[in-house]
Amino acid sequence: MVGYAVGCLQLSPRVARRHGVDLRRVGDRNPGAWNALEHLGPRRAAPAFVLDGAKGLVAALAGLALGGWWGGWLGVLGAMLGHALPVTARLRGGKSVMVFVGGATALVPLAALLCWALFAIVWILRSFAWAARAGTFALPLAILLAGPRERTLPVLWLMGIIGLLFAWSRLRPRRPARASDGRAAGRSASAS
Question: What is the DSSP letter of 15?
Fold first, then answer.
């Protein structure tokens, strides 16, 4: 319940609104950090990434304090579900990637450190978007390398939930774009 409540916090849309962009009206209409990146650019979207990750981190730490290691995973699961299906936004949320990353950082810190190093290298060599993908999807392998190996399966379950959220977003009908959408997108692109 704590994780779900933390996940329901609409932080990325608030970051975007500070720059005159309504994430629910531009791009894929996803109120998460990735849509913020697309419309704000890396520098202005960075707080959205940090805040979405912090939701997972806080949920994991609360779960660890309340229920040990499995409580931590349940806290991250709750935060991911709260981010994806927030009661505060008519169950229309993001895909929970950064929430997962923040939670994993708390629950498998050594493996997460390896993934953060991979993220930094790929960012320097290629781009932020590729770095984020590489760091996220390398986590199960990093757990197998750095341990503890028994934590690999819960990570794969949570990654499976992210896959289901991506599939659900493709199946969900989209609202038609409004004339004001283009103005918001134009403002964000010109400001980047």
Answer: H
Q: What pLDDT sits at residue 175?
A: 56
* pLDDT cut 70: percent of the chain above it: 89
Report the largest interatomic distance among the alpha carbons of the chain, rounded to a whole angstrom: 52
Q: What is the DSSP string of 144-187?
A: HHHS-GGGHHHHHHHHHHHHHHHHHHHHSPPPPP-HHHHHHHHH
**Confidence at residue 171, expressed as pLDDT on a 0 to 100 scale:** 75
Residue with tokens 């650019």: 41
Q: Are 11 and 98 in contact (CB under 8 A)?
A: no
The Cα–Cα gap between 31 and 14 comes to 9
Closest to 94 measured CA to CA, from 36, 15, 40, 45: 36
Q: How confident is the model at residue 71, as a pLDDT?
A: 95
- What are 64's two structure tokens? 């660890």
Residue closest to 23 by CA, chosen among 99, 101, 100, 89:
89
Query: In the prediction, which pLDDT does 186 show?
Result: 44
- For 140, what's the count of Cα atoms within 13 Å in the CB-facing half-sphere? 10
